[in-house]
Amino acid sequence: MTYPLELQQLRVFYRTRDGEVAALRNVSLSINAGEIVGLVGESGSGKSTLGLAVMRLLKPSAARVTGSVHVGGQDLYSLTDDALRLTRWRHIAMVFQSSMNALNPVLSVESHFRDTFLAHDPTMRKSAIQTKTAELLELVRLNPAVAHNYPHELSGGMRQRVVIALALALNPSVLILDEPTTALDVVVQRAILDQIRHIQQQRRLAVLFITHDFMLVSSLADRIAVLYAGELMEVTAEVTGDTALHHPYTKGLMRAAPRLLGTRVTIESIPGEPPDMRTLPPGCPFYDRCSQRLPRCQKTPLPPRTGETFIRCHLVDDSITVHHDIGGDPS
Ligand SMILES: Nc1ncnc2c1ncn2[C@@H]1O[C@H](COP(=O)(O)OP(=O)(O)OP(=O)(O)O)[C@@H](O)[C@H]1O
Ligand SMILES: [Mg+2]
Prior knowledge:
The chain is of the alpha/beta class. Helix content is 31%, strand content 23%. It folds into two domains: 5-91 and 172-327, Rossmann fold (3-Layer(aba) Sandwich); 108-165, no CATH class. It is built from nine helices and 13 strands. The strands form three sheets. The protein has a seven-stranded mixed β-sheet with strand order 6-7-8-3-9-10-13, sandwiched between helices. It has a four-stranded antiparallel β-sheet with strand order 2-1-4-5, with helices on one face. A two-stranded antiparallel sheet has the order 11-12. 36% of the residues are buried.
């Protein structure tokens, strides 16, 4: 089966003055057409690094990338620069973190679209560009007249919609959104998320939605991938009340997400800090903060896992074994 997006054993090492630092380790993840996968994790866990590595946008002088990224069955890292230029934006596009503030202030909205179209098809006519621009603005629920505005004349929510429309300009089948609504108020955020959901279903897009907001992603995504210290700890199809089924870190994120109990909002933070990526412990990277750790979690590396859903945790492995023993499962 060919996935629109498939990552296998993806690793990223940033080159620093003190040597290489692993920012992403052994990430394997596939996304189906018409599916939203949420990628959650604390600040610095490697979420943006993953997005940039998937787009092959990390410069070889800044980072070493190993493993593979397949887009529609095509190995992105084996493409020539010219072939890569064609694939990027046409097959896979990304809305970058804080990109609504990265629109060029001296260019009108229309000029941003014109530059995008002409970069991929220099022969495209002015009338076709205008028609496509109006269609894309309508797609994200903006008035096509916005084309004549400059970025500073638009609200943050409108700029974010423009950036999303630009990413969709060449009709990609895979879209990566890096914190697309974080800087916006909740009402605008909700409206944009509804819109993303609508477009994604209409176009059967495979979406990787990056956020630190666990509540937001659990209401939006079909599956949630939980990143900790550059490693996927769990990929879960649904966030169930039965928390025994989840990784202790995922449970911590659930408890840390604000929720209403009566009239009070309660938040339980996860004690401690993420580990220093330069001196990672040999076993589970969550060991120091885990309230359910076992002695062997300190030294024994986490088992590699692949598939649509999985958990990488010694404790959960044990409880599954126990469960099978009790149930007399012959496997
Ligand atoms: N160019 C770089 N050179 C060296 N280290 C880097 C570079 N870019 C990021 N890092 C490091 O890689 C790790 C992951 O960073 P990344 O930006 O991917 O995290 P993130 O999960 O997106 O965080 P946030 O939620 O704050 O956006 C961090 O420890 C960061 O300091
Ligand atoms: Mg980031």
